[in-house]
Specification:
The complex is a heterodimer of chains A (435) and B (274).
Chain A lengths: L3 H31 L14 E2 L2 H11 L2 H8 L2 E3 L2 H9 L4 H11 L3 E2 L2 H9 L8 H9 L2 E2 L5 E2 L2 H10 L6 H11 L8 H8 L1 H34 L3 H16 L2 H12 L4 H6 L14 H29 L3 H9 L4 H12 L1 H17 L2 H6 L11 H10 L8 H25 L2 H4 L7
Antiparallel strand pairs in A: 1-5, 2-3, 2-4
Chain B lengths: L7 H26 E2 L9 E2 L17 H32 L5 H13 L6 H11 L5 H26 L2 H9 L4 H12 L1 H17 L2 H6 L8 H10 L6 H30 L6
Antiparallel strand pairs in B: 1-2
Classes of the chains: A mainly alpha (435), B mainly alpha (274).
């Protein structure tokens, strides 16, 4: 069977390619991106060089190059072909422009006033100050806000401008003028310093543990134990109903909750006669928002526990139940002494598995409250998404978002490894029997 | 099962807990074909007006049929690739002598538990760099990759239950391992392939976050993104319309769920989402 090894690798290869491209590469890249300042402002490929106001500010604040910054900000007025064409287009008198070309082409003026004096010296000089200003504006030259593809082009343009730079200044200017992304540890400093981070962290812990205890294990146990004490038909009916939320596409499932909660929805209509003003119950207060978030996620989560616990209860030998009944055990004693001890491993499994899913999934929260009201239900996973992929206010901060998700990736890998250790890995890897 | 206890208290108890959920689903369907006066919950007329979106394209949105087609392509192609790749990789992991086999198994199990949604930002940037952003192909590849650990795991589990004797007999008769796999073992795991196929189809059909982030444009939009955009538009709030689009969207899911409920129950206990 010498070819079985090759066949195996051949059969595994497609899966390997997928895993490499969409698991390994993203894990590594999340780590890499987390240490960059990548955003929509820097672009995701290389950047260009531009002496903008935001580049000049750090030049002064970080390096104390006030003088250089002033020089760069300075505007120079040079008579060149482009300017002459622009002047004609701006409506300047053609004779005056021709004269300007003849007398001053190639000349530079240090200030606008000097250029305007020269314009006034023309024989065909424009009659009003406004016209003179309209012409002089066309010749203004500056390196500020011009985009250069390479640093050499930028340095050459600055040299042309008559600004001499020493090596230090060149390096500093290249650094501040670069518009692409750079490596930095700033994301992690920001993460620690921002008060939002702490709030998000507290939200996350509250959300994960409340949902986990009340629903993913608690309510799941209620469902599986109560259906255990029912005839098969109603038990199957209830299990199907409680499986529905998991099968229903998330967008539609959350829409049903919105219908329940919106200001002319079910709750508002039903509660109005009882003296509660109609309102959007989903977003009117943080407490209500959390109630809904936990219900929405919990009911989906409970179905998984329900299925796993139910099959574990089914695996208990019926003779145990019969014997305990003969001995006069009541239902509570059966649950406590027979069912729950059998469920120890399934409960551990669900707890670990669901902790991880709750910690990292944000789909339902995004659809239901989008973190609102006022960030009250923003959890860590949602915050990575909002920062990096849906920032209405400003640039999408890929780097910062990646740094935030790196935290989850590290937790994810560690918990998955624990999971691997706990759930009898040896049995799963028993060697093949045909070799 | 235990005959000595009264059953109706349990049924009543769970019935009360379940009632709100049933109510939500009943109103989901009722509201799409009726009108209800404001301040009441009891419909007073039948109407088909909420289903206009099937013939008239809603301004600023792609046609519902384009979105349906996109969703269908997305779900079917994802299902096909998941089935092909996981049935071959699952067999290799279950039955063949591989170098570093236990490493591969461990890796698949870790990936299965690993929360892939945390990789979204990196995947988004990778697709941008590959030029696959805003294309169905890109989002299909990503969805397939994320479904694979689960698919391989399930298939491996099913292959493990196929008796070795079948393969031994095939080998005795002079078949190669590859022939044994395609001719003898694959037919044995048909139920698994069916279950995994339905599961990945449904999972693709319901997927929201990936298309939202990776392919949001009108011409590649899928129904989940279409419906979410409709709901998010504050200018045109029309709950009955949202519900009708939602019901339209969920029909294939309900059909598959009704027919294949038991198979799905089995596979859902393998668990993929919180």
């Amino acid at each position: 069977m010498g070819n079985s090894k090759h066949l195996g690798l051949f059969l595994l290869a497609p899966a390997g390619i997928f895993v490499f491209l969409f698991f390994l590469a993203p894990v590594v890249l999340t780590g890499v991106f987390g240490f960059t300042n990548m955003s929509t402002a820097t672009g995701i490929t290389g950047g260009s060089y531009m002496v903008s106001e935001s580049a000049l500010r750090p030049l002064v604040s970080r390096y104390g190059e006030d003088e250089l910054a002033e020089q760069l900000r300075e505007k120079v007025y040079t008579i060149d072909e482009d300017g002459l064409v622009a002047a004609i287009e701006a409506g300047a008198d053609a004779t005056a422009v021709a004269e300007l070309e003849a007398n001053f082409l190639g000349e530079s003026f240090g200030s606008r006033r000097a250029l305007e004096t020269a314009i006034k010296s023309l024989r065909a000089r424009p009659s009003t100050t406004r016209e003179i200003k309209a012409i002089s504006a066309q010749f203004q030259k500056s390196v500020v806000n011009v985009r250069f593809d390479t640093k050499d082009e930028m340095l050459a343009a600055i040299a042309n401008f008559g600004i001499g730079l020493n090596e230090d200044q060149k390096q500093r200017l290249i650094e501040v003028a670069y518009t692409g992304w750079v490596f930095t540890t700033q994301n992690f400093k920001t993460m620690i310093e921002l008060p939002d981070t702490q709030k998000t962290l507290i939200n996350t812990l509250f959300y994960v543990f409340t949902t986990l205890i009340l629903f993913n294990t608690g309510f799941a146990l209620v469902l599986s134990i109560s259906t255990h004490y029912m005839p098969t038909r109603p038990a199957g009916f209830f299990r199907s109903i409680w499986l529905l939320p998991r099968v229903t596409p998330p967008v539609l499932y959350v829409l049903m909750w919105k219908w329940l909660a919106w200001d002319s929805g079910f709750l508002s209509v039903v509660l109005e006669p009882l003296g509660f003003a109609p309102r959007n119950w989903l977003l009117d207060s943080p407490a209500n928002a959390w109630t809904f978030i936990i219900l929405i996620n919990g009911i989906v989560g409970a179905s998984m526990g329900m299925l796993i616990f139910s099959s574990a209860i089914k695996a208990i030998p019926p003779s145990l139940f019969h014997a305990s009944e003969v001995d006069g055990a009541n239902r509570r004693q059966q649950i406590w002494h027979i069912i729950l001890p059998q469920l120890r491993w399934p409960i551990l499994f669900i707890t670990i598995y669901q902790t991880l899913s709750l910690l990292t999934s944000f789909e339902y929260i995004l659809l239901a409250t989008d973190g609102g009201p006022g960030g009250a239900t923003e959890v860590w996973a949602l915050s990575t998404y909002l920062k990096a992929l849906q920032n209405y206010g400003g640039a999408l901060q890929y780097g910062y978002g990646a740094a935030l998700s790196l935290v989850l990736v590290v937790i994810g890998i560690s918990v998955s490894l624990i999971y691997l250790k706990l759930f009898d890995f040896k049995n799963l890897t028993a060697p093949p029997k045909i070799e | 099962m235990s005959g000595n206890y009264r059953k109706w208290p349990m049924i009543l108890f769970l019935g009360i807990l379940t009632a709100p959920l049933i109510l939500m689903y009943i109103y989901l369907f009722v509201d799409t074909i009726t009108n209800t006066p404001p301040g009441s919950m009891i419909p007073n007329e039948l109407t088909l007006e909420h289903w206009r979106f099937l013939t008239e394209t809603i301004p600023g949105r792609p046609s519902i049929w384009l979105a349906t087609w996109n969703t269908f392509v997305f779900a079917t192609v994802t299902m096909a690739i998941v089935l092909m790749v996981s049935s071959s990789a699952g067999y290799a992991l279950s039955r063949l002598q591989l170098p570093a086999r236990s490493f591969f198994l461990g890796a698949i199990m870790v990936l299965h538990a690993f929360p892939t949604v945390t990789l979204l930002i990196a995947i988004f940037l990778i697709l941008q760099m590959l030029g696959l952003y805003n294309s169905l192909a890109g989002v299909i590849l990503v969805k397939t990759a994320l479904e694979l650990p689960f698919g391989i795991w399930i298939m491996k589990g099913f292959y493990d239950t196929v008796p070795w004797e079948i393969e031994m007999a095939g080998i005795q008769d002079g078949a190669t391992r590859f022939q044994v796999w395609t001719k003898l073992v694959l037919p044995q795991v048909k139920p698994a392939i069916l279950a995994l196929g339905i599961f990945s189809f449904l999972s693709g059909w319901s997927e929201f976050i990936l298309p939202l982030v990776l392919a949001p444009d009108n011409n590649v939009q899928v129904l989940s993104v279409y419906l979410a955009a409709l709901i998010a538009d504050d200018q045109n709030f029309d709950m009955a319309l949202f519900k009708s689009v939602g019901v339209f969207y969920v029909v294939p899911v309900i059909v598959l769920f009704v027919f294949f409920q038991n198979r799905l129950m089995n596979i859902y206990s393998g668990g993929t989402k919180g």
